[in-house]
């Protein structure tokens, strides 16, 4: 990991879950953190924690990344406060796990706007600035669901699969400018994600044996910054399952519908 002292790091989805832990982890390395999320009160508390850890500034910007104008304002504020942007970590996103034929179209559109289009737009504005500086790294948190879709995750998996494809192309486009794009594909994480994602409330209990600890996983991601890594797939058992899925799709379908289907 390159030294983060004095670096400017933007973290979206920073008010809770993995985004919060990523913000705290980069702050602990001395980064100046710009935190973005919708929940103002919670975001301010995280910013206060970051300030204590980094002993430098942490800026809380209340915004919904599904809004183009809100994202524009975030970057206008960054341009005003800082003369550069070193790293962007897009952790904003949510899921709602129901059968595809039962998915409300409003929820479907909302998921696409946040998980895919919002992250793409943040990445685009960040990349424009990084290309001028010939420096930077974009980290987008997708999901192993974007590689191994299971029942009740059709729309969520689609939003993440699109993000993975976007990152794969963006990585090649930005490589000549020395900018890395790191795609993070986690399996289930022990966060409040499932309070929204799982109406039954039982999914996280059923996958507790492989659920990631958000503090440890955030530290793992931050350790990879500056190393020009392409992907992080975790936990390892799901990363291995993805490789098997590509080699034996029919077997992969059976596993995704049975062994890895806990919903």
Automatic annotation (TrEMBL):
Sorted UniProt keywords: Oxidoreductase
Record-annotated Ketoreductase domain positions: 7-192
GO molecular function terms listed in the Swiss-Prot or TrEMBL record: oxidoreductase activity
TM spans (from-to): none
Signal peptide positions on this chain: none
Domain of life per record: Bacteria
Native source organism of the sequence: Lactiplantibacillus dongliensis
Listed EC numbers: 1.-.-.-
The name this protein goes by in its record: SDR family NAD(P)-dependent oxidoreductase
SUPFAM superfamilies referenced in this protein's UniProt entry, alphabetically: NAD(P)-binding Rossmann-fold domains (SSF51735)
This protein's record includes keyword Metal-binding: no
Enzyme class: oxidoreductase
InterPro entries referenced in this protein's UniProt entry, alphabetically: KR_dom, NAD(P)-bd_dom_sf, SDR_fam
The family this protein is said to belong to: Belongs to the short-chain dehydrogenases/reductases (SDR) family.
């Amino acid at each position: 990991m390159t030294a983060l002292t004095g670096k400017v790091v933007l973290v979206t989805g920073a008010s809770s879950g993995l985004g919060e832990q990523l913000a705290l982890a980069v702050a602990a390395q001395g980064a100046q953190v710009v935190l973005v999320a919708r929940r103002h009160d919670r975001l301010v508390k995280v910013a206060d924690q970051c300030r204590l850890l980094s002993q430098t500034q942490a800026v809380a910007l209340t915004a919904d990344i599904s809004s183009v104008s809100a994202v524009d304002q975030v970057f206008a504020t960054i341009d005003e406060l800082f003369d550069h942007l070193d790293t962007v970590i897009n952790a904003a996103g949510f899921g709602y796990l129901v059968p595809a034929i039962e998915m409300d179209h409003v929820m479907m559109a909302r998921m696409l706007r946040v998980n895919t289009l919002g992250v793409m737009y943040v990445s685009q504005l960040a990349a424009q600035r990084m290309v001028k500086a010939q420096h930077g790294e974009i980290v987008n948190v997708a999901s192993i669901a974007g590689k191994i879709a299971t029942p009740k995750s059709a729309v969520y998996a689609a939003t993440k699969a699109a993000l993975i494809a976007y990152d794969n192309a963006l990585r090649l486009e930005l490589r000549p400018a020395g900018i890395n794009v790191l795609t993070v594909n986690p399996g289930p994480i022990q966060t409040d994600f499932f309070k929204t994602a799982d109406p039954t409330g039982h999914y996280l209990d059923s996958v507790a044996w492989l659920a990631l600890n958000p503090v440890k996983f955030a530290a793992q991601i931050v350790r990879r910054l500056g190393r020009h890594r392409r992907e992080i797939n975790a936990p390892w058992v799901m990363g291995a399952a993805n490789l098997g899925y590509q080699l034996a799709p029919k077997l992969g379908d059976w596993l995704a519908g049975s062994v890895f289907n806990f919903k």
